[in-house]
Amino acid sequence: MLAYILRRLLYALPILIGVNLLTFALFFVVNTPDDMARLQLGVKHVTPEAIQKWKAERGYDRPLFWNPAAGGLQQLSDTIFFDKSARMFVGDFGQAEDGRDIAREITSRMGPSLAIALPTFVLGLFVTISLALILAFFRATALDFWGVVACVGLMSISSLFYIIGGQYLVAKVWQLVPISGFGEGLDAWRFLVLPVLIGVVGGIGSSTRWYRTIFLEEVGKDYVRTARAKGLPETLVFFRHILKNAMIPILTGVVVVIPLLFMGSLLTESFFGIPGLGSYTIDAINAQDFAVVRSMVFIGSVLYIAGLILTDISYTLVDPRIRFE
Amino acid sequence: MPSIPDTNDALLTVQGLSLAIRRGRAHTPAVAGLDFSLRAGETLALVGESGCGKSLTAQALMRLLPPAIRVTAGQVRFQGRELLNLPEAAMRELRGRGMGMIFQEPATSLNPVLTVGQQIGEVLVRHLGLQGRAVRERAEALLQQVGIADPARRLDEYPFQLSGGMKQRVMIAMALAGEPSLLIADEPSTALDVTVQSQILDLLQELQARRGMALLLITHDLGVVARMAHRVGVMYAGQLVELASRDAFFQEARHPYSRALFAALPEAVPRGARLQALAGQVPAFAAMPKACRFAERCDRVQSLCREQAPLLTPLAGNPENQVRCHFPGSGSFLAAAAGPGAGSPTFGPALLEVSGLQVHFPIRKGILQRVRGQVRAVDGVSLELAPGRTLALVGESGCGKTTVGKALMQLLPLTAGSVRWQGQALAGQGGKDRSWRRRMQMVFQDPFASLNPRMTVGDILLEGMQALGVVTDAAAGRAASAALLEQVGLQGDSLDRYPHEFSGGQRQRIAIARALAVSPQVLICDEPTSALDVSVQAQILNLLKDLQERLQMAYLFITHNFAVVEYLAHEVAVMYLGRVVERGSTARVLAAPAHPYTEVLLSAVPRLDGRGRPIALAGETPSPAAPPAGCHFHPRCPRAVALCRERYPDLLPLADGRQVACHLPAASAVQLDGEG
Amino acid sequence: MMPIQPVLLWSDLLLWLLLAGALGLGFLSARAAHLRQAWRRLGRGAVAMGAATLLSAFLLVGLLDSLHYRLRLPPAPGQTQAMYGVEVLSLLDGLLSGLRERNEKTYSAPLATRLYAKESRDTPAGVVREYPRLKHGGAHLGEDEAGRDRDVLQRGFAGLVLAFLIWLALAGGLVAHLAWRQGCSHREAWRAIWQGETALAWRGVLPALGGLLLVALPIFFLAGDYHVFGTDKVGQDVLYQVLKSIRTALVIGLVTTLVMLPLAVVLGIVAGYFRGWVDDLIQYVYTVLNSIPGVLLIAAAVLMMQMLIDTHPQWFATAAERADLRLLALCAILGMTSWTGLARLLRGETLKLRELEYIQAARAFGIAPPRIIARHILPNLMHIVVIALVMDFSSLVLTEAVLSYVGIGVDPTMTSFGTMINNARMELGREPVVWWSLAAAFIFMFALVLAANLFADAVRDAFDPRYE
User: Fold this and answer.
1) C286, C275, A6: which is closest to B369 by C-alpha?
2) Bond before C432 cis per omega within 30 degrees
3) With contacts defined as CB-CB under 8 Å, which chain C residues touch B432?
4) Is B620 helix (H, G, I), strand (E, B) or coil?
5) Which of A106, B47, B607, C412 has the highest count of CB atoms within 10 angstroms of its CB?
6) What dihedral do alpha carbons C93, C98, C102, C103 form, nearest 10°?
7) Backbone angles phi, psi at B371, to 5 degrees
């Protein structure tokens, strides 16, 4: 099993390198640093000197991959690729347009992101799996039928509507919680309730339907018939036999997003003014701050790959076939 | 055969049980008016071909029918209680406690994520109220009872860690945990190899005798019935058509359908004779004839049969035996034991010579997935095929017989070995020339998977002909396809239909026609009848035999069924763990097997006369990735000596021409050898 | 000389090609028995046909909006050559020219006669602050502003009555047709429709059609003289914007699949069929793409695309062309980032299929892999492809809204649900609230996505071989 996890870890490395190369190509090959400079400086200020200055300030005045002017190892290291892309592997993301250190910004913003994303995730999982279990338990009844209809309806509603509608109704009309903002410490809960609630409700439709399908898939299996032939009550059949088997496909989709919770949610954070990574990303996109977007892409991939590895590890917990091989 | 305890009060009585399939608002009757009863300690076998309703009946007794099936009428009395209107809670009390059930597929019927101990334990907790240590001890004892070695360790294992036979033993242990007085076994040995099947049947018989349980055995295999049953019920198209004691049934089955079943069995007819295949198909539930349901296929049919439905009537003289027929047959039909046929031991000039064939699959392990070993699926197999003759390749699952066939067809890469066609190395082996594919074709096992559901029959037949340049223009291709269909006994106008419109037997005919389309001289048949019912199997075997006589093809017939081997093959090669252990003319090998493994295999086949005891085979088949040192069979061999552990025996000829890879071939065979 | 000059935008071309392709495929698939049966099953579903009716209405609007032209300018004196306006219009714009041209100054509420904001006006009595009358909305009422409610009710009622009459006429025609075809009485045909005994589920189509008429006709009667959904910040009619958004949503939902499909099908099948290093490579590529969180990858790609467009203004002749190409680039980016899921699914299925005996039989005849893939594998995967396509449509429509909100969606000048929501959401803070723009966008988007979801479910049920 250790070898299995080790193999997974080793497999992650080439993928990260791939991500790194891809983002580098996207950011520096499609458009040249000159283009970037022109865009940032604005039409009025574009002079060759200004462009040169802009590039030099940010270290974009070097060659992309290979610096023939430098000597020794510096031929490789004194390049845009090494400085901007390869150094991300050691957590060095450079500076944003406003001159702040991206790495420090990221670490300080992870907390607020997590404060929203984690409760949303846990509560959402609990609610949707419970609902799906109820629908699957009462399969082929009116409850199940209308439950599925409701799910399709809910998943046809734009996530923007959930946020805007929820914010308008709860915060503005009923004035139960502040419309937006974030507080430190325990005080933060007032700001968190609404975004978490909206996040949970917004996910009910599609998740419930998805889990219900998984449960129904298991209900039809032979071992369920065996369990019934033993005279087990239906609740035991469901909670012991079906739920445990259904955990395997459920984990595939669930565990992988756990590390990504750090990234926060773009929409929720920007609507509610949460100083997390989601709103950081949105601000960077709007300000066309490429250094930040690049860093977020890389961190997102690292977290996703961490999620993949976590998924593999979680399999060993629920699936004995993997645990013993 | 244990005697039935002489108690007259029935444990289970089924009266007029009728089931219907619900689709939307429409109900299609499936099982109609079933009557039978079962006493404690008695085994009743329900026999019938697929789709006759026997499994549904079993599930109806447990009230575990799928949602689409409803009980429409009837009574089921068990231990004096009416089951069909029992509240669900009381019924649950009964399931596992009063009646236990074993299913056909042990691989899927166990929960993959719970340990053996947990799965047995929950029955003990539920029905016997055991707790804590007592549960474990009892579960261990149960495993011991069903013959699982080292039960304490097995309790903590998961199903995937057990072999197929062991899984079925666990299923039995689970079914027995609640100490039921009725055990329902739905095809308990069908998915297992013949040696394992024999062990499972033995176990069931022994447990039943010890506990005085009633056993309702659902099966399609008359050999299993002969070995296990006290009484036999034959089902056809949702009805019980005959109910008789085992002896009466096997001496003189009365219903024309029962008699037809026997006549279709290869083991029941003399070698060389044609099998009597039933014409037509079982009528669909939706289009069931009002009168006798068997009338359309019956060779004794009279006008009354089409007008009036016969009732299940007790026979004069023996009211225990009942038959649903206006004109029941009589007299024995079991032919005198088929003597070894006069298969000539001489070989014609070989068409195809295979020598030293090896197919290995690499095992990758570790962090870098390096090759750490080889699964020696086929490990040095040599054989020859001659025109007009059939070589049967026999063995249990995993012995590599199918791999040989696929490797010959170049569907798998050869690791080593040579394939020669009339003395010349086959050009196609690895090269671009595909012309050799015209000389050699293959028929596959599963007629439902071997035809592309998205293509018409015409396109399916044409594909090979076009690919190998047999026909070039469309009109000629169509004519050739129609002719092919006629040749395999289908109507030529079926060309524009799709495979799903045909029954299993018809599909297999199409698959054979597809292979014949390029006029091959060698036909590799990979278990072509194992997915079919016996009556359909008979049709296909007859067809193959006719085709061989007419076209002088050589057959490589891959099978696990010795009855089929005996009926069809001139020579037989027995495989164990990737190697041929015995090879020779069918008559001699089957009459007096020389290799101990062949002996075991043959003895394990359930025989229609119910006689003969299977030789117990110790242990499990080892993995072909790590075969035992020395003779592969030595750990399980009753005759093994020191030499067997050290050296793999060469495949050496006996005087009668057969070859055996054994240091100590059976004395009887050697003796026969001396006479011959 | 032509009064108009037809303009073929790339997205028009693709949309029409897609329609032709879909019709062609539908025609071809009717020849394959299993697909024909699947279509029949689909046709029998009441919900499916109801959703399809609604979708057709959306499609009709979208297609009308995909025939573009430029109007000829009135010739200047002494000019011989025809000059055409820079503005690219669509047939829909032409049909809705009333809506398009009747712009107010700024916000106005639905069916209002006055502006949302007070303005100072010089009157003989001095400067007064008041809500000015709208230039167009309710202008026909003249001084009788109080008569608005009655007028609205009258028009609405007339619309409802007419809708009901049209519906009755259509239903009657259908019954007569069915009765004639089946040779039964009209009463029986009517009963057969509602019992679901017809080959096409008219009991789904008729209610959907009825609902559509009951909504559309009153709006139609009102829209001539009112802003039914109000106006936005620059005074443009919201109903017009919503109708224009439909095309954007359709293009995003449909053209994206055009990019995604070939990638997913080819790479997925090739990986599954050939295995070995080909499989390793393809798996590597899609794991890399997959491991970048979707929104971020799209954001990065769109930012770069935007920059490319911004730094090369010389590539585009008109603003419409630029917005159009930006829309297509967005589709391409969405397609490039979303093929991995389907490819993975197809790879898995191909791995299973290639071991099936009919494929082995084909290989035993020495048939070459491309032919095996085309004849044996692809037809047996078609249902997955069809299901994936319809399933993706609704999520793409929803994604567009989010992306446009984040600022990485369509061109800001292009009307879409996303840009509408984005423009309107800042006004929620106002008092009284400007809610109509948002509400209209959400309602139309909900109707479109719900219909697509219901249709997708029905397609899945009809095409899944497990239900055969």
Assistant:
1) A6
2) yes
3) none
4) coil
5) B47
6) -20
7) -70, 120
> What's the CA gap between B159 and B115, in Å, rounded?
7
Taking contacts as CB-CB distances below 8 angstroms, the residues of chain B near C381 are none
Q: Please, which residues have CB within 8 angstroms of residue B203's CB and are 6 or more apart in sequence? A: B146, B147, B169, B172
CA distance C168 to chain B (A): 31
* Spatial contact of B53 and B19, defined as CB atoms under 8 Å apart: yes
Neighboring chain C residues of A270 at a CB cutoff of 8 Å: 406
CB contact under 8 A, C284 and A15: yes
Q: Which residue on chain C is closest to B498 by alpha carbon? A: C33
Q: How many CB atoms lie within 10 A of CB B82?
A: 11
Q: B12-23 and B370-385 as β-strands: parallel, antiparallel, unpaired?
A: unpaired
The sheet that has B69-78: what strands, in order across it?
Answer: B26-38, B12-23, B69-78, B81-82
By the 8 A CB rule, do B589 and B598 touch?
A: yes
Is the CB of B24 inside 8 Å of chain A's CB atoms? no
Distance from CA of A220 to the nearest CA of B (A): 9
Q: Could you tell me if A221 lies within 8 Å of chain C, comparing CB atoms?
A: no
Tally B–C CB contacts below 8 A: 64
| CA Rg value for chain B | 26
Q: How far is A2 from chain B (nearest CA, A)?
A: 9
Q: Which of C261, C204, C258, C270 is nearest to C54 (CA)?
A: C204
**3-state DSSP helix/strand/coil % of chain B, to nearest 5:** 35, 25, 40
Looking at the complex, does the CB of residue B92 fall below 8 Å from at least one CB of chain A?
A: yes
CB proximity list for A224: less than 8 A, separation 6 or greater: A218, A237, A241, A242
B158 to chain A: which residues are within 8 Å by CB?
320-321, 324
Probe site for chain C from A161, A221, A280 (most C CB atoms < 10 A) = A161
d(CA C167, CA C151): 24
Say whether residue B62 is in contact with chain A using an 8 A CB cutoff: yes
Residues 6+ apart with CB under 8 A from A13: none
C428–A164 CB contact, under 8 Å: yes
Cβ-contact B267, B338 below 8 angstroms: yes
A286 to chain C: which residues are within 8 Å by CB? 407
Backbone angles phi, psi at B367, to 5 degrees: -65, -40
Domains, chain A = 32-90 (no CATH), 102-318 (1.10.3720.10)
Amino acid in position C72: R
Interface pTM (ipTM) of the complex? 0.89
> Beta B579-585 vs B659-660: how paired, if at all?
antiparallel
Is the distance from CB of B183 to CB of B100 less than 8 angstroms? Answer: yes
- Measure in Å the smallest separation between the Cα of C455 and chain A Cα atoms: 11
Instruction: Say whether residue B540 is in contact with chain C using an 8 A CB cutoff.
Output: no
pLDDT tens, per residue, chain C with 468 residues: 567 888 888 899 999 999 998 888 888 877 777 778 888 888 988 999 999 999 999 999 999 999 998 888 887 777 777 778 878 889 999 888 888 888 888 888 898 888 888 888 888 878 888 888 888 888 888 888 888 899 999 999 999 999 999 999 999 999 999 999 888 888 988 988 888 888 888 999 999 999 999 999 999 999 988 999 999 888 899 999 999 999 999 999 999 988 899 999 999 999 999 988 999 999 999 999 999 888 889 988 988 888 888 888 888 877 888 889 999 999 999 999 889 999 999 999 999 999 899 999 999 998 999 999 999 999 899 888 888 888 889 999 999 999 988 888 898 888 999 999 888 877 777 777 888 999 999 999 999 999 999 999 998 888 877 655
Chain C closest-CA separation from residue A301 CA (Å): 5
